[in-house]
Structure formats: structure tokens, C-alpha cells
Amino acid sequence: MKAAHIDLSNIEHSSDLILEPALREGFSLGAILVYPKKSVVVKQQEHHHVSRKAMEVLFALACNAGKVVSRHALTEYIWGEGQVSSSKISHYIGELRHLFEDHKEHPVFIQTLPRKGFRLLVPAMPLESALLSSDVLRLTEQLENTKNSPIKKPFRFEIWRQNRLFKIAGTYIVMSWVLMQVVTVTLPIVNAAVWIDKFALLILIICFPLVLLYNWRIDFKLRQRFVLKHQNSDVQNQMSRQAYRELSALVCLSFCCLVLASLLGMQINKTAHGIGTKSKTSEIQADVYANSVAVLTFKQIGNENAQGVISVLQSELLSFLSQSAQLKVVSERVLTSLPVDATLETIRERTGARYVIGGSVNVQTDSILITTNLTDTESGYQVWSSKATMPLDDQLTLQETISHQVFNALTFLMPLDESNSLQFKPTDDIHAYDFYVRGKTLLREAYNQTQLKEAEDLFLNALSRDNRFDLAKAGLCQTYIEQYELMKKSQIFELAKQSCQSDMGETNIKAESEIALGRLYSASGEYELAKHHYHQAIALQDSHSLALSGIAQVLAKQEKSEQAAVYFLKAIQAEPGYWRNYEDYGSFLFASGKYYEASLQFYKQTILQPQSEEAFNNLGAAYYLNTEFDKATESWKKALGISPSANIYSNLGTSLFFAKKFAQAAQMYQQAVNLNPGNFVVKGNLADALKYAGNGKLQTTPLYLEALKQARDSEQVNEHDLYPRAGVARYNAELGQCDAANSGAKSILEVLPDDPYIFYDLALVAINCSTKDTVLNIIGTMLKLGYPPKLLRSDPQFIQYQQGILQLQSRQSGIQQ
Predict the structure, then answer these.
(1) Residue 781 contacts residue 807 (beta carbons within 8 Å)
(2) Do the domain assignments include residue 412?
(3) CATH number of the domain residue 16 falls in
(4) Do residues 172 and 109 share a domain?
(5) In terms of domains, do 152 and 110 share one?
(6) Which end of the chain lies in a sparser environment, N or C, as judged by fewer CB atoms within 10 Å?
(7) Based on the domain organization, do 118 and 138 belong to the same domain?
(8) Is the distance from CB of 122 to CB of 27 less than 8 angstroms?
(9) Domain match, 752 and 779 both
(10) Pick from 612, 507, 578: which is nearest to 331 by CA?
């Protein structure tokens, strides 16, 4: 800003100072802010401290801006009536000029008038410290300085970047992100409702435009006050245009926030009240086909002897309907994953069935009454119902009768001429059918060699009476497969091949036999033959999930991970309601180190198997290795609620230990020790938890001694097993017996183990008995062998090596690239 030309002839002299108390709170000189009480000057957003006397000089000049203030008046105001050299005033004027970068010959702020005094050339405006910002003043100065230059484009980023609202918006977004992180971490701890985090986000979204509009209103008022005292019309117009551009942008932003808030509000309302929202079954969504049919388990009424009839009835109806080329029949493996009280909506979502066949079985003294019905899952209406009464000892006739009735009910899906190709009765021999039913019932529950042998004999008896009984052939094939997987005998392998390769008439049974052969060759390591039979099954029955999953597992064994993942996903798509598809894919991802992705699959397994301890154990392990310790803890607690075991107590203890909840971890480890007192690893973990919980050596030393003794006993059983040997070294180190610990670690390293968990124990030995470099070398080997770096960084026992772990991880990532 250039100094105005001054006409000295019209100068007004004044020896009396006029002081304005309001300026004590602060005033502005153009874009410069002055705070007399604090002796602070803000220039270009930088704070400068001024001497108290210099500030008093500036204050006196500001109160009399435009007027000449004599040296005598200034000295009298500052020092009173005492005799003070006028050179002091010159000193403070010089200090102010230096601060303002003002020149005596061409002054902008303070003009010196020889033998008369000083005059402040810039008007001093009172500062409303709670409202006026330096950004407003700086913007005014920019507009004034560029009044003669071309007007900048209204949406130029530089203008908006320097805007105070832009800075406020950025600060608000950052603080909101931090707050949401805190909310996300805190809510699970206090068991808050699942919609609370969404509600917090809703409040932040609503407040965002309100905060910006409030600050815009303040700035707008200040600009109005400022420009009213500013005589430059160009500056006034540009400031007004800029203000209304900001308002337009804020209106658009407010509209977007309103739409987003409305959508989020509806979702919160649905979640909080359970209105219009799908249950967690929506995680499992099958495609619904117009010709798809599910056969549910029939309900039992009356005599308990009906249970055997019920299990066979469902299975045989499925076999009968699977003969039709027109129907898409939901498999028995998917149906067994349905909850007992499943609604039609749940059945439709998980199985993709348009129609459901169900009913009841009432076993009386010498007869059986079966009610069968057909329900449309889309409308919920029962479209057909029938009753049949048969002698209790003639299940074959009963099966044939029910099959005829169901066929008649489904004629709108199956053409009548298809009845010629369907086999309503699997065999004409009632005794063969009885052997088959008993064999199938036994096979379903068989878990040892004796039970499998009994099932084999029953199927052989059925085939001895009817050697064309395809269902019995399929049962025998399945029995031999189970026997081979249990005993791995070559003789059984040959029997399984002969049985599964025998001529079977029905397409669905042929497909199951091809899958059985695929399993057989996969178990024996003949992977190409296994894939061949799986593909044969797919050729017979398109999108057969067992065949697709079998191919995926073979490809995984051949280390063709990308192809394997494709087939796992195809299996899930073929039968979204079958729990094993998710377990198999989750296990594949888990083995590949993709723990988060694995947790998503295991979570779906828990939806389909809510009473499976194994499913929640799998989920907990995936969460744990992904360092989601709170989720792992919750999953393992659910597993304990289903079936308590030492293994799950130990897992839960480890999760709590990594979450730094050492006292709770010790309680879980103690439970594991109570159930399995001979496990040296769990006993050592209990000692670790007590140590980190603050317990002294008086409690931990006896536990380490017991763990050491048990590890030595295990080492004697199998001297080639490195786990007990590593345990011995580790517990020696914990007990301060470093010579024995280092000697044991050295003997292990000479074997060149390739298990990262062996090196985990060796790293703990080094922490207690060696140097930092040795520890980092062992950690480097752990990482190379596949130990999860994220988990290692979360381990309380390696907390002092975090920086080294990060450097090792970064170095190894660079080498791999």
C-alpha cells in the first residue's frame, strides 16, 4: 500500500491525546492485527512480540490515527511529567517501523513530521476478537492489491485453498475421522447397540454443513462491516461475489449431506427396530429358480419309532426327484444346514428353492400315516397336500406311494411323459431295500472301522438280493471311500475303485460315484485322475458343488492357487447354503495367509452352523492371526459355550494375552491346564500370562519348572520332535539357566528347521539369554518362513523390537519385489 500525498499546510496539531479504551482489546491496521494487552502483533499470520513501551506508543497513535501526535504528548502519556529524552520515542518508533517494514522517507504506516511529531497514516479499526479473523483481512488486502489486475477465475483452487472455510472443513473432517475411530474401538467393549456407530456418523454429517454455514455467516457480517469503511467499490464487489460463491457451494454441500443423512437415518431406523431388514441369513443368498424344489425333514408325530422312517423318507424322496432332468433339486447336504425352525424366507434365501415339500409322519400300532404338502416359498401358500396310510412293515410300498404322490403334485414342473423314465421304486425286493435302509442309516453316523464294516455288510446283502440296486451300489462305494480314508489300505483302495466304477443307471448316482472316485484318487495323490473324475461328475450334473470343491482342493495341493480360488468360488455359487464350501474356501485362504478373507468365509460357516464349535474355532483363529483380538476372543467364547475344551481355552487365553488382558488370559490358561494338565505349552503360557500380569517369580517359577519337566518328558518320547526341544530351551531361558538354553537352541539350529513357530521359541530364548542382534536375526528367519508380521508386532513379548521388525519386514518385502 503506497502512502498518500500529505498537504502539510492543513496539518492539525494536538497536544492532548484522545484514548479509546475499546482499542485496548485489539485493533487492525489493514491486514495487521494488534493486541495491546498481550503486546502481540499478528502479521501475515505470524505472531510478533513487541516491547511494552513500543506498544503504548502504537496504541496512542492508533487512538489518534490521522492526527499529529507530538513527542511531548507521547512522553507525557508514557512516562508522566518526568524528564525523559525524546530519543527514547525515536527508538520505539524505529522498533515499530522495523516490525511493519516501514520506511521513514516513504512511510506507509507511521509518518515523522520534523519538530512536530508523528502521525499514523492507516486508520485503526476496533477488533472484535471473538469474530474477526486474519483470513478475512488478508482476503481484503489481496483483493485490494489486485483491483487493477484481471479478475481471477471464480473457482480457481488457489482462492478456495486460502479460504478459512476450506481450512475449517479440513479440520472438521480429520477430527470426525479420529472420533469415528474411537467410537469403533469403544463400542464393542461396552456392548453397545450395533447402530450406535451409524448414529454417531449421522450426527457428524448433519453438523458438517451447519458448522460451515455458521462460520460463513460470521465472515459475511465481518466483511460487510469492513467494506463499509473501505471506499474501494471494486474490492466491495469482489468480496460480495466471493461470499455468494461460498454460499452456493455450501448450499450444494448441505443438500448432499441431507441426502446422505436421510439414507443413513433410514438404515439406522431399520437396524434399531428390525423393520424391513434381513437377518444375518442375508449373508447367504442363493439364486431362486422356477423349477427348484427342496425336500424338508418330515415332522414326527406320536411314536418315537418314526425317526428311522423320517430320515429315510427325506433321503429317498431326494433320490427319486433327482432322476428328473426338469427339476433342480436342493441337495441333502444343503438341507441339513437349515435351522430346525427355519422360515420359508430363510429356506428360500439359503437353498434357492421355489417350492418346498414337507409333511409329517405319525407311526401308530401297526400302520403309518404320512401327510405330504407342497408350499410355494414366494407366496407362502400351500399349493398341494395329500395323506397316505400304509402298513408299518412295508416301507418299500410306502416309498413308492409317496413318490407317485409327489410326482403328481409336481406335474406342472415335470411333463407327464417323464414318468416313463422315472424309477418310482428303487428295487422290487423288500428285503434288499431293508438292508439298504439300515446300511445307509448306519453309514450316516459311522465314525470307526467297526461301524463302516457293518454298513459294508448291509450294502453287500442288499446287492446280493438285487445286483441292479443302484442306491445300494452308491452306498457301498461311499462306504469303501470312508474306509480307505480311515485306514489307507491298498486292498480297500481297489475295492473302492471296483465298486464306484460299476455300472449305475441314474445320472445323479453316477455323478456321486464320479465324485467318490475323485476323492479316492485325491487321497492317494493321483491328482490328474482325481480332476478327471470330478470333471466327469460336472458333465453329468452341471455346477455340482462337491465336484467343483474337489477340483479346487486338488488345484490347491498342486499349488495352483489362482485357479483353486476360482473353483472354490464356483462351488459356493453352486450351493450357497452348504456350510462346507465356506469352510473349505476359508481353510484355503487361511493357509495362504489371507486371514481377513478367511474370516469372512468362516463367519458364513458359523451362520450355517451356529452350533458348531469347530466353525467358531476356525473363525477365532482367523481373527487372531489378523490381530483382531477382541473378535477372536468373542468367537472363542462362543465356541466354549458350545463345547468347552482345553484347546479353545488355550486359544482364548492367547487372544487375551495379545490384547494385553493378562489377568483374563491367565484365567483361560488355567482352565486349559485343568482340562489338560500334561500340556507343557499351555502351562508355559500360563506362566507368561502371570508374569505379564505383574505376578512375581514366586508364582511363575514353579509353573516354568513344571513346563520344563513336561517338555523334557515329551522330548524323550520322540527325540526328533523339535517342539519339545524348543520348549526345553525356552523354559530354561525363563528360569535364568542361559547356558542350557543357548546349548539347546544351538542344537535345534543345527537341524535347520523350517517351522516359524520353532524359531518363535528360539527368539524368546535369545531375548532372555542373548543379544539384540541375535534376536533380530531369528525374527528375520521367522518372517521368511511365513510367521505373520502383523501378529508379531502385536506380541507383548516382542514389544521392544517393533522398530527392528518393521525394518526387517520392509527389507524382505523389497527383496521379494
Answers:
(1) no
(2) yes
(3) 1.10.10.10
(4) no
(5) no
(6) C
(7) no
(8) no
(9) yes
(10) 578
Average pLDDT over residues 52-69: 89
Q: Which long-range contacts (CB under 8 A, 24 or more apart) does 562-566 make?
A: 564/588
Residues 264, 358 share a domain: no
Query: 10 Å Cβ neighbour count for 148?
Result: 7
Query: Is the model's pLDDT at 188 over the cut of 60?
Result: no
Q: Where in the sequence is the domain holding 107, given as residue range(s)?
A: 8-126
DSSP state letters, 629-656: HHHHHHHHHHHHHHS--HHHHHHHHHHH
**71: which 3 cell numbers?**
513527542
Q: Find the CATH number of the domain harbouring 415.
A: 3.40.50.10070
**pLDDT tens-digit readout, 503-551:** 666 666 788 888 888 988 888 889 999 999 999 989 988 788 999 999 9
CB atoms within 10 A of CB 677: 12
pTM: 0.62
**170-203: buried (b, 16+ CB within 10 Å) or exposed (e) per residue?**
eeeeeebeeeeeebeeeeeeeeeeebbbbbbbbe
Helix, strand, coil percentages, rounded to 5, for the chain: 65, 10, 25
Same domain, 109 and 165: no
Q: How far is CA 53 from CA 38, 87, 95, 288, 438, in A?
A: 12, 13, 10, 87, 109
Q: Which of 483, 390, 477, 469 is nearest to 434 (CA)?
A: 469
pLDDT at 516: 87
Q: Which of 97-106, 131-140, 421-430 has the highest mean pLDDT?
A: 97-106
In angstroms, the Cα distances linking 473 to 317, 461, 506 are 18, 11, 11
The residue type at 336:
T
> How far is CA 238 from its chain centroid?
50
pLDDT at 342 over 90: no
pLDDT, tens digit, 9 for 90 and up, residues 719-751? 788 899 999 999 999 999 999 999 999 999 998
The confidence score (pLDDT) of residue 665 equals 92
State the residue for C-alpha cell 492543513: 10
C-alpha cell belonging to residue 369: 400315516
The Cα 712–Cα 724 span in angstroms is: 7
pLDDT score, position 279: 40
Beta bridge partners of 371: 360, 387
Evaluate whether residue 775 is within a structural domain: yes
Phi, psi torsion values for 38, nearest 5 degrees: -95, -5
Residue 699 placed within a domain: no
**Domain termination site, one of 425, 452, 474:** 425
Q: Which of 48-52, 183-187, 733-737 has the highest mean pLDDT?
A: 733-737
Beta-bridge partner residues of 119 = 68, 111
Burial degree of 790 (CB within 10 A; 0-12, 13-18, 19+): exposed
Coil, strand or helix: which one is 262? Answer: helix
Quote the CA–CA distance of 475 and 286 in Å, as a whole number: 29
Domain count, the chain: 4
